[in-house]
Design goal:
With 269 residues, the protein is an alpha/beta fold. 46% of the residues lie in helices and 16% in strands. A hairpin with a 6-residue loop joins β6 and β7. α1 crosses α10 and α3 crosses α4. The two termini are 29 Å apart.
Amino acid sequence: MTTKHAHVIVTGNEKGGSGKSTTAMHLVVGLLRDGLNVACIDLDARQGTLSTYLSNRQSFIEDKDAALPMPDIRVISHSTEDNREAAEADDERRLSDTIDELSLNNEVIVVDTPGADSTLTRLGHSFADTLITPLNDSFIDLDVLAQVDPKTLQIKNPSHYSEMVWQQKMRKAKRGGGSIDWIVMRNRLSHLDARNKREIERLLGDLADRVGFRQVAGFGERVIYRELFLAGLTMMDIIDVLGPENLTMSHISARQEVRGLIDAIGLVG
C-alpha cells in the first residue's frame, strides 16, 4: 500500500439533477490545466454520467486531433457478494485500493457519487478530503440538507443527507483519515426571485454553523454547460476550441464561476 495520499474531492448529493457530474468534470479539467496530475473515479456505474462525459471527450480528441488534457479514470460497481456485510467490506476494499493505486501518479482524485443513498455513496463520502455538494438554489432542493418549517421558514432538523455526511466524517476519522472540508455549492443561480434567494441564503447560513459546511457560489443556469457534454468539453477548454477572439461575456463569466470553485478548494497556488 502506498504512503502517498492524493487529495480526494468528492461530489455528492442524494438528489439527482444537481450538477454533480458537471461539477466533477469541470474540476478535473480545471485542475489538469492548472498543472496538477488528476484522476477520477465514477461510483455511479449504472448512470455513468462522468464516464460518458470523458468518453465523449476522448472521441472529440480523436476526431479533431485536439490536444486536450485527459485524466486517468476508474469505474467501480457495487460488489456482487451476497452477504450485505461482506459486500460493504468488498466495496470499501476496492475503493480504498483504487485510491491507493491512483495516488501513485496523481495529486488529486475526483470522485463522482450516485444521486441516491447507497453503500458506494456513503463510502465515497467517507474518503473525501473535500466534499462538494452542488445544490440547486431553491426550497425544493434545500430539503437535501434540512427540513424547513413552511410557516416560519425556520430550520426544524438537518436532513438524512446531512446526518449521513456527519456519520461519514466519523467513519473517516476512525480510519485515521483526518477531517472533511464540506463545501455546499449554490448551483444554477438566477437573477430572478431575489427574496427567495435571500431566504435560502439565510437558512444556509444558519445550517452551516449547525452541521459544519461552508458556502461557495456555484455555476449559473447556462445552456452552454449542457451543450458541452456531448463534445466532452468544459468551460476551461473553450479558449482552445473557439479561440479567444470568439469568447462571449457568457463564456467569460462561466469560466470565472469554475475558477472561483477551484480557488475555494485551495489546492492551487
